[in-house]
Amino acid sequence: MTKKKDVAMTVNETLRIGRALRSLAGERAPRSLLPAVLARVGLADSYWEIDSPVGRIFVAHSRAGISLVSRARSASDFERAFRNRYGRPIGPSADAPPANVRSLVAGRVRGRDTNVRFDLRGVSEFERAVLLKALEIPPGEVRPYSWIAREIGHPDAVRAAGSALAKNPVPLLIPCHRVVRSDGHIGNYSLGGPRNKRTLLAAEGADPRTLEKLAAAGVRYLGNREGRYYCFPTCGGLQSLIRDNQVRFASSREAEAAGYKPCGECRPAAVA
Amino acid sequence: MPQPDALTNDLALDLDGTFERLVRVFQDRIFSFAHRLSGNREDAEEIAQDAFVRAYRALRAYPAERIRTIALQAWLYRIALNVARNRFRVRKTRVVSLDARGGDGEEARRAWEAADDPRERPDSRLEEKESRAGIAALVAGLPERYRAAIILRYVEGLKLEEVAEVLEQPVGTAKSNVHRAVNLLRGAISDSRRTKRNRS
To answer: Is A17 on the interface with B (CB under 8 A)?
Structure first.
């Protein structure tokens, strides 16, 4: 064999080896890899079944926090819904739900005051701000969408705040049922419709019927004659609704014109 | 693929909430690398699993500023390589040896030879698959030092600088290891061909 031939062969051979090596690339990891890794580092997902005022709910969680709440018809429906949404497997939890989660489900405690963690991966920054703001609303009280929008620094994004709440992956635990229409009507609810929203509010000690009546009468705020401040009707719970020395306002402008200041607790208007 | 900076930042801020994304982004590459290193899928899956678990534990221990500076791809390849090395050390490499007669080695060699014969070009799917299996087995039979280098450079398609980072070697050393690996592989291929000629 001549030297020239030898070199040509070597070049061909090298090209061929390169091609053959490249053909080994682009492999897919087996599907079992991700769940196995997550389980080993303690990040596997599991779910609790918890009784709530609107029936049995499924609550998916991992060490990263609570990631999905729904009223699925069965455990297997819930498992399927979770897999479809997050692409990870899930199984029933070995432990009972901790007390703080149960209190949250029962509406006995304000989300902000518990150390329950939420796993809001896949939720946009804006939506996250909306949801975390809703955690500040105490049980038995409601705030309008416009309040959420204003409080998170996007006063014009009322509709966007509404749709963020409608998409809330963890309803009930993040209490989007405590957020109502800006005209005071209770409005819609993702976890089984408006009736469930009323049921939940009533279970927490709010009075949905009175709220609707006030909204229908155009009353948006209640003023306290003694303290000369005005509030959302549910501020401080049911007590405020039956107080004698209250005055009704249709708008914050009306309240301010009458010499009333916005309440520092429920913040019915931006504090100037 | 360029390093997604957003990922290290998110890992620094919320490890538990972001870790899944890290696994999803890199699992194919780490698995593929482990497969080529070990020569079989079962070991590869265990190596990849161990590598991600180690990565998670390391990230838990690191302060946020350190996480932000990690070049994730090279770092993960390096962890996978270390996991694989430990396993090979313990088990004294179950991988196919180039000197092996019969078994997988022989099959691999035949597959490679078949592809080399102009009358038996890998035009059917099956033959192509066999030829891949052939080169894969020959790669898996290289000494570990060269094997890692050639896989990272030519299968995973890393730049030499990144190969050097994974191997924790100067670029010059990595380059000569890659070069040596190609020569060894070429030698292995002609050896296998000679064996065939002698047989026929």
So the answer is: yes
